[in-house]
Amino acid sequence: MIIFWGALATVFSFFLTWLVRNWALKNKIGLSPSRKRDIHSKPTPRLGGLAIVGTFLLVGIILIGLYADKGPVDFGFPYKALGITIDKRFLGILLATVFISVVMLIDDIKGVKPSYKLLSQIGAALILILTGVGLVYFNNPFGNTIYLDSIKLPIQIGSNVFNLVVWADIILILWVVLLTNATNFIDGLDGLAATLGLIAFVILGVLSYTVGQTATAVLSSVVAGALVGFLPFNLPPAKMFLGDVGSMFIGLMLAITSVISGGKLAALLMVFSLVILNAIYVVIKRIVKGQNPFTTPDQSHLHHRLLRLGLSPRGALFILVACSTVFGLIALLSYGQIKVYLLCLLSVIAFGGFFYLDYKIKRKRGR
Fold first, then answer.
1. Structure-derived torsion over alpha carbons of residues 77, 82, 85, 90, reported in degrees to the nearest 10
2. Structural domain boundaries of the chain?
3. pLDDT in tens for each of the 367 residues of the chain?
4. Which of 59, 148, 165, 240 could be disulfide-bonded to 48 (CB atoms 3.0-4.6 Å)?
């Protein structure tokens, strides 16, 4: 059943991507012009995220119609709105997706201020919080479980009372902002963000299934399927880009699937360690140079540095995907304290690799 929903999403995504690409080219909407820091040499549609999000919403509507708050989309929070029965958490996921995607679609077509992007990320996280999505504890491999619900603030909106769990909600907001920006940071090499996202969702889906969390496994399978259907248009040389809609959606869903129905943060950190560490490294470099850490246009990302060493786009993609696949398998096969130690070791190795790449690039320039 889980594989079926992923396969259905693959079919929908492939045809939606084809339709959106042809529409964008015909009407010259959402075309990404070639800039100095870009890899592509001619205008390319950047509305691929519209097809991916459309696929997710379409499959979500089908699931609601067939199962309501039962079966594959039952997170344990039944809710009734406008005569429709739906799981409240799943409703929150759909609403957060629509909210952030509308803002990012405007950005892909016309452009919006960076502050509006940040506000949309925070807004999506707040929607998740109000519908019960959150992380209220950490599984501590070194001792007792760490609970984050020590401070609760009841807030009444209409006839509904919501409890804001202060520490848990702050962490969720930061987690959403981190992952949406991290995936956006790496969306500069054809196929990279979509492929790494696919690996992460497969790993998270398998982990969820093995512990009996069917709804989270289905969620991961649908997003993974949507990415599989999109990738034929996005692998180098790309015929279609994710755009901010696609990259932000991947980051949002990674944040959701890693915390809902029990935290899987360590597993996601292993899979996306290169992405997250690269984002941190780039931000630190920009701050040291006195630049805006989030909006400075440059070629300081990991894939840019690999290309400057002489690798082809396919070669750079292969190296990054291979590393992330190995990290993902380690996350799948390791547990407890071992996973934490491996994550720390990989972090040290990654930062060492970043410094070494910068050293090699400087030497190459000096020749």
1. -50
2. 2-263
3. 789 999 999 999 999 999 999 999 999 898 876 555 455 557 789 999 999 999 999 999 998 888 755 667 777 677 776 677 788 889 999 999 999 999 999 999 988 998 999 999 999 999 999 888 887 777 666 767 777 777 777 776 666 666 777 888 898 999 999 899 888 877 878 899 999 999 989 988 988 888 888 888 999 999 999 999 999 999 988 999 999 999 999 999 999 998 886 666 777 777 777 777 777 887 888 788 787 776 666 666 777 788 888 888 888 899 888 888 888 888 777 777 787 788 788 888 888 888 888 888 877 776 5
4. 240
Give the span between the Cα atoms of 128 and 176, in whole angstroms: 10
Query: What's the N-to-C CA distance of the chain in angstroms?
Result: 58
Q: How far apart are CA 74 and CA 346, in angstroms?
A: 36
